[in-house]
Amino acid sequence: MPKEFMDEYQPLLIKGIKDTKQPTFPHRSLLLAVCAACIGGTFQYGYNVSVINAPTMFVHNFINQTWSDRYQSDISDHVLTLLWSAIVSIFTVGGLIGVTIGGTMSMMLGRKGALLANNIFAIFAALLMGLSYPTGYFELLIAGRLFCGINAGIGLCVQPLYLGEIAPTSLRGAMGTGTSIFITGGILSGQVIGLKELLGREEQWHLLLATTCVPAIMQLLILPWFPESPRYLLIDKGDDARCKKALAQLHGAAGCISEWEEIEKERNNFVGFKAKKPWELFYDPTIRWQLLTILLLNAAQQLNGINAIYFYADYLFKQAGIPSEKIPYVTIGTGACECVTALTCGLLIDRLGRKVLIAGGYTLMSICCVLITLTLTFQEANPIVPYLSMACVFAFILSFGLGPGGVTNILTAELFTQSTRPAAYIISGSLNWFSFFFIGLAFPFIVIGLQQYCFLVFLVICALVATYICLAVPETKNKTFLEIENAFQSNNHKKVNGVDGAGAILLSTSI
């Protein structure tokens, strides 16, 4: 044990607190740090995904009027559709840009520094979108949505990295679910604020889009009170003093000693080695299965059918007899449902483990795909069938939130060590955004071509991913980052004492 900690906490040690004692509940400062990181991080992603839906018709009217005033002619339907598609889809382009620079920012500015700097993009985006209506320039909406995407891309890359590095091993899963909890919270918030009773009226749509600056300002006010990632401070910067101070603030006196020893052990394994570039991961055979796993999981997160569910939700609600004007309120129910499951995932993940939740989630989604296909096919057979379809929609959302939605980002953090983790987030994030963009382009054609049978495509994807997880992915619950890497090498019949991706000898451990 480091002498500095021994001297400071000797009275606690005398009382019988062991170095290996694992916390059962997060320290208050750690919980607040997670909230401070998430409010301006993945919350922004969820918020900007959903908030654009409410003012759709109002933006159409604005573009129509602006075009008419500018060119003294009516805009064609084709051009209007093209402009609206640009406003919506440019968000994914920005996200792809953001994730490619997020890893670099996290290494240059630190995890906390990158999160704080990222708020500049959100504030600038809010300014552009807020000024679009008063100035009469719909081009500002496109630019604003681009910066929203950059902000979301950086947040999705850096925030899970920060959460995975500040959490103790025993609570890393629960803390990591802050990513999905705040994404779903952002989606729900965007749905609520977009109601006509709040900012969902025509004269206020530009203010609605400009509210993306509120979470950014909140993070700028709150996050500076919390420390940088201790792993970044010790392993990347070699700053022992600040690392110890950060651990004491985040974990308290009883929890910081074992965390220090774990981080120091990892540093000793990677002494003298720098963080890897993204392309270097593809040439490293010792992390091939980790890389394949996160590529598969991040692609499946967008291609598993969750977008189809939201597409069909309005149709199913109408079939069940819900009036069109009430559907936005029912849609809020789907957002609340996903938010509750994300919270449930956070409570269960360190008890049941990552593998059980994500494999079980994809299995349940596979079953839901079959049931949804059947209920959509026989929609007119019986008055009760539309209600069964609605139940299947909520079951699918519950299954997604409980497994893939909550666990995927955590596994990306856990399957890599300090030298490869930022590059892994760049790769996984880029694939996630590319899949998001692809499904946005291809999904309408899939629905038109296959109609209700499109869910059979998603059935195949969900079933294959569930099978791969059961066969190839080891459980990571309560394991250190080095133990997880050893588990992958052991599962693939590699020598435990082989050289890892940075050239350091891995410590042997029982799996």
Report what the structure shows.
This protein has 511 residues and is an all-alpha fold. It has two domains: 203 residues, Growth Hormone, Chain: A; 239 residues, Growth Hormone, Chain: A (Up-down Bundle). The protein has 23 helices and no strands. Helix 15 packs antiparallel against helix 22. The longest helix is centred in the first third of the chain and has 32 residues. The N terminus and C terminus are likely disordered.
Class by helix and strand content?
mainly alpha
* CATH architectural group of the largest domain: Up-down Bundle
Basic shape:
globular
Mean pLDDT: 80
Separate helix tally: 23
What composes the largest sheet?
A: none
Quick summary of this structure?
The chain is mostly helical. The chain is built from 23 helices and no strands.
Topology, element by element:
Elements: H1 3-14, H2 28-39, H3 42-50, H4 56-71, H5 77-108, H6 111-135, H7 139-166, H8 172-176, H9 178-193, H10 205-210, H11 213-222, H12 230-236, H13 240-269, H14 278-281, H15 288-303, H16 306-319, H17 327-352, H18 354-377, H19 385-402, H20 404-414, H21 421-450, H22 454-472, H23 481-491
Helix pairs in contact: 2-7, 2-11, 2-13, 3-7, 3-9, 5-6, 5-7, 5-21, 6-7, 6-11, 7-20, 7-21, 9-17, 9-20, 12-13, 15-20, 15-21, 15-22, 16-19, 17-18, 17-19, 18-19, 18-20, 18-22, 19-20
